[in-house]
Amino acid sequence: MSKKQLYRPFYRQCYLNTGGWIPMQPLDRKLELGDFGQIRQGRLTPLGNICKLRLVYEIKSTELIALNPDDWRLESGLANIHGSTETQTDEKNKLIAFSNQVFNFESQGDFIFHGAKPKARLIANWSEFKHDIILKLTQADYSLRDVYVTTAVATVNHWGLAIAGADGAQLELTAESADADHFALLSHPTAMARQRQHIAAFEHGSERPGHFFKAKKLVLSDHKKDQLLGQMLSQNVPLDSDELANWLNADLLNRVRLNELNATNCLDYFDWADASLDDVEKLC
User: Fold this and answer.
1) Which of 101, 102, 106, 100 is nearest to 79 (CA)?
2) Residue 255 scores a pLDDT above 90
């Protein structure tokens, strides 16, 4: 299993447990509302921002919204956790607490993640300019046929992620904290990995926030799908059942001739859909 594939359980559970938030790659890579781009080689690669497209309507966004912190406590396959807390006296005779915890993972790809103080901003008037963006991205400014537009961005102030690279992996953490909660320890600003065995990834952020996103993706409109399906069924040399089944699983946009698309009819061809688990799989 490649290192990228080891992230699949984390990506999937993050999407499912947080209400559709997708991790940025890497997590501390900054992302802005309105960034548009493509998924290439397992990561979202921004190509620009829709704010620069000279849109008819002004883009409006919400203020920062606090998200449910419990949704950002994720784990899979933690066999057991051993922890201890001790206190020491510094040079000023001040008591300082230190916590130490050992995480044991059952299987390859198991993980633990915690993001503290999650908050988000969302585009608030997508419906006003979504058709204008189709025109700009597919005809006027670009000729894109595969593109994602970031419609919401979430950040977590302090965060930690550990992923097992093999069965029976182990991670020992220490932090200047008396909190016995293992999630809080993982994301604590002072958390450090004392020992790790078969850990494929240990990522920790205290100065750079972790970023997550929701996006719309450009898709063939339902109206145009129906038209193309009707054309395939009514052509002089009909497709056999295997060929038809293959086309239904393929991108029907491949049946559209390049000279058929223009600024007049592009809104008939395209629409937007929410990024889904299928798109999360592309990141793995």
Assistant:
1) 106
2) no
